[in-house]
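Section 3.1 - Work completed
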Amino acid sequence: MTQTNTYDYIIIGAGSAGCMLAKRLTENPNKKVLLIEAGKNDNYIWIHIPVGYLYCIDNPRADWRFKTANEKGLNGRSLLYPRGRVLGGCSSINGMIYMRGQAGDYESWVQATGDDSWSWENALKRYMSFEDYHSAANQWHGKGGEWTVSKQRLRWPIMDRFKDAAVQAGIPASDDFNRGDNFGVGYFDVSQRAGWRLNTSKAFLRDAAKRSNLTIITEAVVNKLKIDPITKNCYGVEYIKNGQSCEALCAIEQGGEVLLSGGAIGSVQILERSGIGSAAHLNPLGIPVIADLPGVGENLQDHLQLRMVYKVNGIKTLNTKANTLWGKMMIGLEYVLKRSGPMSMAPSQLGAFAYSSPEQKSANVEYHVQPLSLEKFGEDLHSFNAFTASVCNLRPTSRGSVHINSIDPEAPPVISPNYLSTDEDRKVAAESLRLTRKIVEQAALAPFAPEEYKPGVQYQTDEELVKAAGNIGTTIFHPVGTCKMGRADDPMAVLDSQLRVRGIHHLRVVDASAMPTITSGNTAAPTMMIAERVAELLTRE
């Protein structure tokens, strides 16, 4: 072992949670903090240009390049499963949409944990504390925080017409999806600053890195946690840097802690390699069991989007604008001169939250609408004018899993989201496709003669629509829940309500894996809010 140093806090993973933790915990100059990241620095230009996600996903420079298992609910297909491997983590490659979810999401966390600190009211205070909102501060939004929330810097006529059609279909117009009830249609707010992507490395780590009490180690893959099998104290971490096995120790005698922020996939891998997980899974791999916690890697939840594509006439979309050399030149010039236009685009511009059926108690589906279309991610845009209306079930009842099947820290895990595995999810999928058709049939879009290209009008019955959902469904990159927090009497709860690992001392998991249930929207901002909560706990002690 080399490079043995001792720190008050060791943070594993410099993503949406880890970068915030590093900023908050180093505010006390007497605390030494180590931040370990498997990826490289975020000085790759495509990370910072908003449309650059196209060149970051499935690129080893910024992505772990995971894939799912073949999914029965997706008619046997496997999906790319991007996870950030770079400073900023998934915030460096995600869709930049700023979304908190619904008030009811947080009330369900209170029910799951018995801890009112997770209530909507308390969560809202945390969001406002790190927020720098594009308008004046008010009862819903904060001003002056590190995290810039901006309006998008472009509009598309086809998006405006879809918005009008959604209103005609009974979905009210909205200018803010972050007030606790996001029912409505409007343009998303985005995590950008003056037309550039804002990742958590830029927002939180850049200032913290100037502090002498923060050490950042990149390109270092954590092998496992150092845990005393007798006392169950987590007192450090083993990692691999430049082919060398290294270790860092945690000053647990002074109240130090190891904070695992590897994400809903990565944190599971590290816990299982360290002997924390289901004994039934670890024993065949020859891993000594330190804590038999069957919930590790279970309870995987994700948002499955159903990408419906409609051809249109008489109105321009990005398909035709970006398919000519002149068009591409003009797009590039607009971004260089104004930081606006298609290169400033989040992957989805227009959003809508709706009820798939009247029996739902709150909006249960989310739309990501785009003025473009393509066969699948990474391929060229279609040659015809079209838009895409992707719809996802916000509160899926399907539960999947992620587990290692090798002790090699570079080996990919087995990711099985188990999409569309419940009757409820299949029902909502069919309802969602019908709702999209209802919106597109409204008068606002009629002049453009929308024609359903995917999945196709031949799918009509519930059974046919579920099959269609399996054909066009793809992840929207929101895995959560694999180390869920919960009450002491919940045998599947990996964490208590303060995100401490059950049965292990001085170890917390601080990332989206802690969510007992998925939020009703995009998951980056809730992950930052979770980190803010743990920072509160640690800095007040």
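Second construct:
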Amino acid sequence: MIGEIHNNEERERDLATRPIVTKRESGMTYRKFGLRMLRIAVCAAAGLAIAGLAMGATASAQALKGGTLRIGVLDEIANYDPQQLSTVNFYVIKNLYDSLIEYTADGKPVPSLATAWKIAPDNKSVTVTLRDGVTFHSGTPFKADGVIAALTKGADPARGKNVYSTMAVVKDWTAPDDRTVTINFKDPVPDRQILDLLQFLIPIDPKGVETVETVPAGTGPYLLESRSVGQGMKLKANPNYWRKGEPVSKEIVFTIFSEDAAATAALESGAIDMVYNGSSRSAARLKNAGYQVFDGPGKLVQVFRINSTRGPFRNKKFRQAFNYLMDRDGILRVGYAGMGQVVALPWAPASPAFDASYTKTYAYDLEKAKALLKESGLTPAEMQDWKLLVNGSDEPSVRISQVVQATLAQVGIKIDLDIRQGAEFVDALLKGNFDAVFGGVGNVQKFPSRVATNSIYRTSKNPVLKDPHPHPDYVAAIAKVDTTFGSGTDVKASYDNLNKVLVDESFGIPTNSYEVGLIVASDKIGGITPDMDNLLVARTIGFK
């Protein structure tokens, strides 16, 4: 989700295989076609704008019935590894596994497999007390060795997947007994960063850690019953689950649909009970048709990613002009049917670094953009010496790229869209073989330096900007956030400094938040629980 998947390596990795209605050639570049399609897209989007959606509450007071819950999804999972936090895996992770702690929708930490945690006065360690009476799906009792298995795997660059970068602050760990684990840090770590680690950390059965990609090894509310690759899977309730009264539904049947339209048609026909992680456009239409639509706090932020080591983007003034060249309202409307929020910083409103004033300061303004373009000293030919890489398999990316293409034409910059499909796009994206591209980033609602888990914002080993990092002020700003403690003016100053540096360096231009993990359900469904990362929490869902 997976924009960048909540590290989420890249949302584009997941979306790259989704077909869209329009047919295009892989590697195709075009200009006139993009401008013509933009006009069509704007007209279509105008009829889809809707009011904000209500967030689903946790299970309602009324008693819910069990049964078979039929869920439509659009992606095949990558594997069962809980440290592979890719959006394609979001519908199974919280159903096969439990974390040490959970966040409520408003970011409050609550116990899960850890019943208590104590951060040392010097912030150089945290001691976790583990829940008793829990077993893994294999029947193995949950103890400290399950946490150690997850820590060991997460700290391994070859096996740690999306958890590896989060483990960078960890020095070592000890387990004085079966119910206690102490995690030691290399340096003092802010409280919220420690809590993010505990929430990110999912214990793994020590007996199954080596085969976890192919065989689930968790403590979660459901067990894997069967799977048909490319078609779906069936989960059955864990009879030994530790949460009283959960899971509500005794069975979940996931069906994979190749297209969003097919999934929504199945919902409307009654063949399935809900769709998870469908498109904003379909959600908007079905909301108006009377279906329940639930969004959550775990937004992604769409970012115009700039490779500042190439072409005209080496020029800071040229990059800064894009803060004003982004028609954020148009992008949100055309790409996401108005579902989301215009932003000029890579934060969701739940982030402590969120600052709404930047949206007004850096609003769409062609005159300010023209002034910065002039200050850049670049010739018109130099300003046009680049292409915008586009994920041709993701319709929102195509649409919003067309918006930018049309805007640039208004200031005399005529560019081609380099549309690539599938693996060809993913390869260019992850290796930094592009001038500019749109891509979602995750972790934007958590501790601010977690944004550095996303490739364009990495402070070291950045696949796009390489080493040494070409923006040392940004690297220093992230380090300052990581080493400033408490809740006073110094902490706020570190966030303010990071925001100023992000806008000044302008190697990433955020445009809007957007929904990932949207749930569209029939009126027979109840008990939707919003998740901080918008993962699917099915254990509370039942029938009214």
